[in-house]
Amino acid sequence: MLPVLTDLDHFRSLLSQAPAVDLGALAAAEQRNGQLTKPPGALARLEQLAIWYGGWRQTGRPVIESPQVVIFAGNHGVCEQGVSAFPPEVTAQMVGNFEHGGAAINQLAALAGARLDVQALCLDHPTKDFTQGAALDEAGLMAALQAGWGSVDPASDLLVVGEMGIGNTTSAAALAHALFGGEAADWTGRGTGVDDAGLENKTRVVREGVALHQSAIQDGLDALRCLGGREIVAMAGAIAAARMLRIPVILDGFICCAAAACLAQTADGALDHCIAGHQSAENAHAALLAKLGKEPLLSLGLRLGEGSGAALAIQILKGAVVCHSGMATFAEAGVSDG
Ligand SMILES: O=C(O)c1ccc[n+]([C@@H]2O[C@H](COP(=O)([O-])O)[C@@H](O)[C@H]2O)c1
Ligand SMILES: Cc1cc2nc[nH]c2cc1C
Question: Where would you find the membrane-spanning parts of this chain (predicted)?
Answer without folding.
Answer: none
